Amino acid sequence: MNDTDIATERRTATPAELGFSMPAEFAPHDACWMLWPQRPDNWRYGAKPAQAAFVAVARAIAESETVFVGVNDDQYENARNQLPSRIRVIELSSNDAWMRDVGPTFLTHPDGRLAMVDWEFNAWGGLNGGLYFPWDKDRRIRQKIAEVLGIERFITPLVVEGGAIHVDGEGTLITTEECLLNPNRNPDLAKPEIERLLCAYLGVEKIIWLPRGCFQDETDGHVDNLCCFVAPGEVALTWTDDDSDPQHAISREALGILEAATDARGRRLTVHKLPMPGPLTIAETEASGVDRLSSSRPRQPGDRMAASYVNFYIGNSVVVMPRLDPAHDDEAHAILENLFPGRRVVAVDAREILLGGGNIHCITQQQPRV
Fold it and tell me: What is the average pLDDT across 43-49?
């Protein structure tokens, strides 16, 4: 029996009991994992514009660390020819391209071991508001990556997506009630039980609950679109001063909770406001390029998108942020430069990713250094 078999069979000890925990994203990485977009009912024009955006993100992160891009077999040659040779392209079938949510949550151990949490995945709500069907290939991704890396895999029945959680690496986790307490995720679990499981599988000690995620976020309010840790005791928060915009009340509510909170080490949090782009909506030409299928979420002209500059990726030497709105791009870039003085901030045109329902953080998953 190999290590993966042992990890799969283990039911008595949790990762936290064994000394594992989830590092912060700003801690050193060994690699970044991504997937390749192709489904025509989510990405317009056969995903060609989205593929170009994914290539730009992968190029930027590859300055900083190894990048793996998983592709379906029928897209392997296309992806290999578009991506630089230093980026590793592997056959890894998926239903769509959101590695943050369908990929593993990596854990590390003080003795140098790497492991992962294999959450349950139901495509952001299953048959009760989920975004597509089926999601069978997505559910196998974590097991495949565990076998590629030869690491322990801790299986949990808790439905959690990677974008629903942010940690500081020092015992604190931030999430939203809108997502993890949604009846389409874990209807049989109360809040205290979900907290217990998060602590047991991620090695955290304190959970800060924000009520809601960004306005009309189709993931049911993922925290990574609203708020994230940028350093121990410091968070970035999506913000708008326009009190007529629905996002204003959401961000103001979150600000009050964050400023009143302390982390697992007893520190008060410093909150850095990042301006909200837009509001941004889907254009007629953008909606018309998407196939309409009953098994996936429709893209309608005029629909507001949950655009956020908080949805960036922190690499070893770069921070890759979305370029979304000329009115706010430069301001957001400057704020991130101040927050990450030791990293180069790279802005990537990301509207094509946003049109698919997420952004740069949503399509990436860091593998921590051990």
Answer: 96
